[in-house]
């Protein structure tokens, strides 16, 4: 979301999240993040302008503005919790607090023998998706980048000895070959459809979403068709009291029969409009719009 915010929280809060009760460390992190946004008013104003632009000014946008900053900070809490707590704690946390539905969509996809592409977005408790699936016995590979080397090292330690594999370009991993290797081994590949920094933004390739003409990248189509892997939408919403709901639904059982990227983006549009306060890439909204380029 924000390089400055990410560095602040990842510098000062790993030890707090590691040692304090989750409810306490979450509230401390949210308080510190609220101070950050109060001081860095330009970032806050940009996010609020983009909320107005995407949703249209009015009561809905105003309601989202009141809730979005806490949700952004809750995302960082979840990230630090997964990276810095012992694996036993993470397993208990996920087991007790994350409910799941639609897992049969993943089972049906994996039954085809070509792995499965789990498509999500920068929305909700996305950091809880890999450990939740791994806890239920699914082999998971995740393409990701981290804001600091400290967080990357923490995630590497947290996933060591588990059924979660990380694919990280900045440490020298060959991302594309890692993706196809994971799928060929029958693993679930978790990827985010709104990763705009990785998009090849071309005016010749746009899609109408949120009432705007947005760029979109065809990489998901390429991966799905080349691997033959089915795609499943996987989203994890957060609720009060450190409760979460992970839901799966099929996107494309046969990647050769349809445009996987387009279907995935339309699912992202639906999920975002249902819970806009839980999206945390508001600063990058203008980068997605073809009309703004």
Give an overview in words:
The chain has 293 residues and is an alpha/beta fold. The chain has 13 helices and 9 strands. It has a single domain, classed as Glycerol-3-phosphate (1)-acyltransferase, CATH 3.40.1130. The protein has helices at residues 3-12, 14-19, 22-39, 41-55, 59-84, 87-97, 103-110, 129-135, 149-159, 175-184, 219-227, 260-274, 285-288, and strands at 98-101, 116-120, 140-143, 164-167, 188-192, 206-209, 212-215, 231-239, 243-252. The strands form 2 sheets. The protein has a 7-stranded mixed β-sheet, sandwiched between helices. α3 (22-39) crosses α5 (59-84), α4 (41-55) packs across α5 and α5 packs across α9 (149-159). The two termini are 20 Å apart.
What are the SSEs and their pairings?
Elements: H1 3-12, H2 14-19, H3 22-39, H4 41-55, H5 59-84, H6 87-97, E1 98-101, H7 103-110, E2 116-120, H8 129-135, E3 140-143, H9 149-159, E4 164-167, H10 175-184, E5 188-192, E6 206-209, E7 212-215, H11 219-227, E8 231-239, E9 243-252, H12 260-274, H13 285-288
Parallel strand pairs: 1-9, 2-5, 2-8, 3-4, 3-5
Antiparallel strand pairs: 6-7, 8-9
Helix pairs in contact: 3-5, 4-5, 5-9
CATH topology: Glycerol-3-phosphate (1)-acyltransferase
Structural class: alpha/beta
> Count the strands?
9
Q: What is the CATH class name?
A: Alpha Beta
Please give the alpha-carbon distance between the first and last residues. 20 Å
Quick structural gist:
With 293 residues, the chain is of the alpha/beta class.
């Amino acid at each position: 979301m924000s390089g400055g915010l990410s560095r602040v929280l990842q510098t000062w809060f790993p030890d707090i999240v590691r040692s304090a009760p989750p409810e306490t460390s979450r509230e401390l992190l949210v308080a510190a993040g609220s101070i950050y946004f109060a001081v860095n008013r330009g970032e806050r104003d940009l996010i609020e302008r983009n909320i107005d632009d995407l949703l249209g000014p009015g009561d809905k946008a105003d309601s989202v503005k009141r809730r979005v900053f806490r949700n952004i900070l809750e995302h960082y809490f979840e990230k630090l919790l997964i990276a810095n707590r012992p694996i036993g704690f993470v397993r208990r946390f996920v087991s007790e607090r994350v409910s799941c539905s639609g897992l049969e969509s993943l089972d049906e996809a994996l039954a085809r023998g070509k792995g499965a592409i789990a498509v999500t977005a920068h929305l909700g408790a996305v950091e809880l998706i890999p450990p939740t699936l791994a806890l239920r016995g699914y082999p998971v590979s995740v393409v990701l980048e981290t804001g600091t080397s400290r967080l990357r090292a923490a995630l590497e330690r947290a996933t060591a000895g588990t059924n979660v594999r990380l694919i990280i370009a900045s440490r020298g991993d060959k991302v594309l070959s890692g993706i196809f290797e994971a799928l060929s081994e029958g693993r679930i590949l978790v990827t985010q459809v709104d990763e705009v920094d990785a998009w090849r933004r071309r005016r010749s390739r746009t899609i109408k979403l949120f009432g705007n003409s947005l760029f979109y990248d065809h990489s998901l189509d390429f991966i799905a068709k080349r691997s033959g892997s089915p795609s499943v939408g996987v989203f994890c919403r957060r609720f009060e009291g450190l409760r979460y709901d992970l839901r799966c639904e099929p996107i494309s059982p046969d990647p050769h029969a349809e445009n996987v990227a387009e279907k995935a983006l339309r699912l992202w549009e639906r999920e975002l409009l249902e819970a806009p306060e839980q999206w945390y890439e508001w600063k990058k909204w203008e980068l997605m719009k073809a009309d703004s380029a």
